[in-house]
Amino acid sequence: MSAREKQAPPGPLEYLRRWPLRAWLAMVAVFLYAPLITLMAFSFNNSRRNIVWQGFTLKYYDKALHDDSLIQAFINSLTIAAISTLLSVILGAMAAFALWRFRFPGKPAVDGAMALPIVVPEICMGVAMLVFFAKVLPWPQGLPWPLDLGAIIISHVSFSFPFVAVVVRARMASFNRELEEAARDLGASEWRTIMDVVVPHMSPSLVAGALLAFTLSLDDFVITFFTSGPDTVTFPVKVYAMVRFSVTPEVNAASTLLIVLTVLLTFVALRLQGDPAAAAGGHGHGADKT
């Protein structure tokens, strides 16, 4: 018999200690997800009034998917998210590798500065970006620069790449430095060692960081609201403009599509990130066997 089978069943006192925790977790789950479930449910409501259920329908999804302005806003969001994700992965991976690999003067300050975009409120970053592009970084008249896709991309990269760096550093904490030393002993150059040994170990975190950066950029509203111009409307900003008039099932349908896409990308990112502790244990066992 296994150890689990030999273990005695929990007694009454054990159940009494467990049920408050289970009840608390259930209440937290209801508090977090009940509004989202309600929004998604009323996106199928066959009524212009959200508070009155008049039957099931998919016409508002069809209407949302055939709204040209909404589709253009979604294309803008996808373009911004794709470009900012690529730049964020490059900068985040380089920053994480430098902070993990090297020692240099001012490293604690740089490490702390990397965390600022994560902890600073978005409203502060949005105002700062608006002032930066409008006042600090003037642009000649007639050239398309301020408050367009370029400004939004730069703003998104500034708060996305630290998240990539955090994910990559967590992955590199499980790296076995003996593998790198073995590659050098076999004659590999510094660049060859990085590409053949370090990057393959880093690759799951790069994918996870890319999906995380893509998700953050795709559904960002606050910073985008301050850095977007009248001719550059993203999907969250468009949904906000629709909500200002009334919360209709069409708004619920558009929000549901964004929620589903964000949840899927976040789930994939968490799955690809893996467990650094387990990975570290695997490397340790391998070293012991050697």
Count of runs of 4 or more consecutive helical residues = 13
Morphology: globular
- Biggest sheet, in brief? none
The helical percent reads over 70%
- The percentage of residues in β strands lies in under 5%
Query: What is the helix/strand order?
Result: HHHHHHHHHHHHH
Number of strands: 0
Question: Poorly predicted ranges (pLDDT <50, ≥5 residues)?
Answer: 275-290
Q: Tell me the distance between the termini.
A: 33 Å
Structural class: mainly alpha
What is the average per-residue confidence, as pLDDT, rounded to a whole number? 78
Radius of gyration over all CA atoms, rounded: 24 Å
What do these coordinates show?
There is one protein chain. With 290 residues, the chain is mostly helical. 77% of the residues lie in helices and 0% in strands. It is built from 13 helices and no strands. It has helices spanning 3-6, 12-42, 59-65, 68-101, 107-119, 122-136, 149-172, 177-185, 190-218, 222-227, 235-245, 249-273, 276-289. Helix 4 (68-101) packs across helix 7. The radius of gyration is 24 Å and the shape is globular. The protein starts with a helix and ends with a helix.
